Amino acid sequence: MAHENVVASLADPAAPAAVAPADNGFAALESFLTDQAPAAAAQAPPIPLPPIPLPFRATSGRYRSPLTGFQLELRVDVDGRQPLMKLSGDYFTVSGGTVTYFGSWTVDAVTTSTVNGSMVVVGTARTTWPTTFTVARVVVPRRTVLQPAAAATITWSTLTGAPGATYVCQHESGALRTVELEQDVEDGVTRFDSYNTGSLPSGGPARQLNVAAAYGEAGIQILDTGGTNVVRTSPTHIWNDASLHDAMLTHFSRYAERPQFKVWLLHAREHELTSTENVIGIMFDQKGLQRQGCASFYETIQSAAAADQRTQLYVNVHELGHCFNLFHSFHKSFMNPPLPDRPGALSWMNYPKRFNPGGSAPSGEAAFWGAFDFGFDGLELAHIRHGFRNNVIMGGSPFGTGAALEAPIQPAEAVSDTSGLQLSIRTSPDRPTLGTPIVLEIALTVQRGQLVHRASQLHPSFGQVQVTVSRPSGDTVVHRPAVLHCAASELHDAAAGEVLPVSAYIGYDAGVGQLFEDPGAYRIRASYTAPDGSVVVSNTALLRVWSPAGDDSAVVADLMLRDETGMALTLLGSDSPYLRRGMDALQEVVEEHADHRDAVYAQLAIGMNAARPFTKLHADGSVEERPPDLSRADRFLNQAIDASRGTGGLDDLTVYQVMAYLAASHAAAGDADRARRLRQDATELARSKNAPSTIQRMLRGNSDS
Questions:
Q1: Which of 119, 374, 591, 608 is 20 to 30 A from 218, alpha carbon to alpha carbon?
Q2: Count of domains observed in the chain
Q3: Is the pTM of this model over 0.85?
Q4: Are residues 383 and 74 in contact, defined by beta-carbon separation less than 8 angstroms?
Q5: Roughly what angle, to the nearest 10 degrees, separates helices 580-592 and 551-560?
Q6: Residue 106: what pLDDT?
Q7: Are residues 426 and 445 located together in one domain of the fold?
Q8: SS3 of 133, please?
Q9: 298 lies in which domain range?
């Protein structure tokens, strides 16, 4: 009994205190334990616990075979996060010290089984090269998380079972693809860090996301190169397309004119279209340099508020998505080959304001964010994980070009059209000769009052209007603007009878370069995707490009058809050394061929470039800001304007826009009198030419201000 009291006092301080002997109870405790020892020894041995099984490694990931003959990069996607049950791979030929891309393949649906402790994956592949060995069988031994990853063995066979080649591919990464990201930030801009998705209502679990984590959830590893440079511009600096284009070529230290999984992202303050069109992102797509750079603009989303932080995450992931060759969710029909538009997609590539799942389901920005789980949709995941290499890799296929072999076709007439909208197009100038810059005049007529896009956003660079050109060579080209603007501006509440016009230079294409490079007949058609999803198809514009008449015209044609000239015209001029050959060609046209009808386009590009500032980023990271040269701008633009007051020269809309821009430049420089005279001149010219009422109202408003 005394022993029990001692033990109780040691286990529970609240128990009654025992009568302790002089040794404070330790001797009694020792005696008690000694007395109990034989009894303990007589007890049954403890029952062993079953071992806890260790979880297996994910089979999904990237594997690579040795550098001998053909090397295979194998991608397995059958478990882990959002498995798509697909296989894909890229083959490379190895010759001496060189490795060259050969082709790609994808298995769109697989069957899986476990055989003798190995994961077995089987499916039939689509390939970029002709072959009868299309059945892929991949075997990967299962390994626990404490064991190194096993190699994957792929064996090819025909549909009838004839065996083909076998490759043993070592595990390389849990990511299906890896991309190097170089990020630079403009002085005064706080680069986006991360956002907690639980800060505001959403459709997914709360988690901390940055750009790399967002792509990591999609199976893509983003490696930040760590070479962030601070672009030290003035506090009031505003970017334009020409400066950004030069910055991409100069500042992207990993730039090369070849396909590579490397991309540049600039965190900038403001684009010149941010204030008017709410442009918050831009992606460049130029022949030979496809999808290698993009920029995000923070001017309207720079606060620490949760909504702005969420938008910063969205914009950065969205713009990089374009570099992976992802179209907007509501513009999938613009791809080559086309896919159905998905305006109801809960995806990084949708516009929150354009979210429309159809039926009576909630639509718009609040509905999008409330249901968005911060991810890509299934078809987009399939593209960035398993798309054929050239259709995904930066510097590969032009924006929007997919893997199918079918040729694009002109948009078809709607069987019925109750949209209340009419789209019309015509080309300018009349009777162009080879080398003449082709401008497409686009007009949307609103037959029934409704919400539509603003006139300026009907320009193809905003993606609402797609232009398709059938050429005399027999091919059909879906026009790809070299610059894609992502804007989040409000829709326009148009009245019945309102006409919304815009003009666009379409002579240079991001995929094929010079679009009108041969004499002959061209058929041009456009389609507009309205906010409600209606696809409105235009008339067909017939364009005949004539051969140059005489040596003078032949020389001008040669100068105007340079790829660098086409890009310079797209950007309305540039100081970039990368486009110097094009700008020199335009300068030669105005100096040596001033009487040629196409000299007016050279005057336009040279004059507009002078009318605006240009930011030059040097290789050492230093910045040089060239202010507008209004004396030079007046010289060239006044020549272009005067040549266009009659029936020749530039199209009317371009003339009005040039006069308005030049007036704004003079006003910014403090010359209010010159600005007022230009605006009044533009207003009178538009009235005399019976310009659409929307244009006249805009010019009158500018004149009054």
A1: 119
A2: 4
A3: no
A4: no
A5: 160
A6: 97
A7: yes
A8: coil
A9: 183-383
